[in-house]
Amino acid sequence: MIKNKLKDSIKTERTDNSNLNEFTRQLQEQIFNQLKKQYSDIVLDYWQHPRNYKSLKNPDGYAKEKGSCGDSMEMFIRMKKDIIVECSFLTDGCGTTIACGSTATEMAKGKSFTEALALISAQEIIKHLQGLPEADTHCAYLAAETLRRALADYLHQKKAPWKKHYRRP
Ligand code: FES
Fold first, then answer.
1. What is the distance in A from the centroid of ligand 1 to the CA of 160?
2. 71 CB within 6 A, ligand 1
3. Judgement on whether residues 139 and 97 belong to the same structural domain of the protein
4. What does pLDDT average to in each consecutive run of 10 residues of the chain (169 residues)?
């Protein structure tokens, strides 16, 4: 008797779980379809598969900036003879911020210090992402500004290399 009750309850639980899984799947699909109406495929791709999303140990350039919405972004740069050989970021921001950070770091890699400073702007990030809704353009400004500050930090460190060991990270 108890054994049967237990079997029934496991069965009910399994049915509940599969209903919940199906509900979750449908909800995710609905959300994704809504997002597809607002964002390009490239934004959604970077959003789901962030590029260069990591910190770098002892970076040659580093910056942490806060956006107008309160979200922040950190950027890390590794240089070799004034060429950006590695560029990565971290953020506590939304998916669009992740897409913008991914774009900025992808664009920066392989560029010289001067090229990166001159060519990577919020407008270029937005263009690369095939547009962003007006409400999200500040995410691109945050990524561009963080990169600019990390480059400025690199310049600063070059003049006073010993300072690198006394700053975060
Ligand atoms: Fe805050 Fe994108 S930076 S929403």
1. 33
2. yes
3. yes
4. 68 81 91 92 96 96 94 97 96 96 98 96 98 96 98 88 66
